[in-house]
Amino acid sequence: MNMKKQICIEETELHTSEGRRNFLKICSVALSALMGIAFAIPLIRTFISPALQQTVSGSTGLLELGSISDCQVGIPRKIKIKDVKVDAWNKFPPTEIGAVWIIMDKDKAFTVFTSICPHLGCGINWDENSGKFICPCHDSFFDIEGRVLSGPSPRGMDTLEAEIKDGKIFVRYRKMRLGVSGKFPA
Ligand code: FES
User: Fold this and answer.
1) 3 state DSSP class of 65
2) Residue 140 CA: which ligand 1 atom is closest?
3) What is the pairing mode between strands 132-135 and 95-104?
4) 120 CB within 6 A, ligand 1
5) Given phi > 0 = left and psi -120 to 50 = alpha, else beta, which region is 98?
6) Same domain, yes or no, for 77 and 47?
7) Quick check: is 182 in a domain?
8) Measuring CA to CA, which residue among 144, 145, 164 is closest to residue 69?
9) Closest C-alpha residue for ligand 1 atom 1
10) Are residue 41 and residue 131 in the same domain, yes or no?
11) Candidates 113, 114, 137: which one to mutate for ligand 1, based on the most atoms within 8 Å of Cβ?
């Protein structure tokens, strides 16, 4: 083998091993980047995801109000509504979020009203003596079926979606817009 040929072979080997080194370097950088992304995603989700959620979420499903056997025909019964509140980072213990009036008629059919007055949002009470619902803030009066009898309330008491399951009453609690004649979710 002459000298020129020997140099040529050595140069070729040199290029081959340099190419291999570069390839391994690229692979190692790519692998490190992938591992970095794999670790970063859960971390980013931990910090970003709560911020994308609703700040405070109230009830979304049906809430249990109690047994139907606790209701008496024609006598409204007030029940406080409690629900778990969740904000971006915390889950709070059950908190009172409102109240409802349940009425059972003689056919054992149930009506559930929110206790919030449609005028400006005060709490509506049942007055046994007069047999009427009364809002004490501006004297709106409602009959037992929630119809306005007198006062500034622009509509009757708001009914809520309710279900009976295994002898228990459940309600889908929600707040409605105030001061308007139509019933729209707030
Ligand atoms: S808030 Fe009930 S009558 Fe005004």
Assistant:
1) strand
2) 3
3) unpaired
4) yes
5) left
6) no
7) no
8) 164
9) 120
10) no
11) 137
Q: Are residues 101 and 166 in the same domain?
A: yes
Strands of the chain, DSSP E: 63-67, 77-83, 95-104, 110-114, 125-127, 132-135, 140-142, 148-150, 161-165, 168-172
* Tokens linked to 151: 């006062």
CATH number at residue 130: 2.102.10.10
Claim to verify: residue 87 and residue 168 sit in the same structural domain: yes
Residue type, 85: K
Write down the residue that tokens 């029940």 correspond to: 79
Q: Mean pLDDT per 10-residue run, the chain (186 residues)? A: 62 68 79 75 54 46 90 95 77 87 94 97 97 98 98 98 94 94 93
178 within a domain of the structure (yes/no): no
Pair (121, 167) in one structural domain: yes
Verdict on whether the full-model pTM lies above 0.70: no
CA 41, CA 175: separation in Å to the nearest integer? 38
Nearest to 96 by CA among 60, 61, 59, 130: 59
Q: State how far the Cα of 33 lies from the Cα of 55, in Å rounded to an integer.
A: 34
140 touches ligand 1 (CB under 6 Å)? yes
- Residues with Cβ within 8 Å of 62's Cβ and at least 6 positions away in sequence, in order, are 163, 170, 171, 172
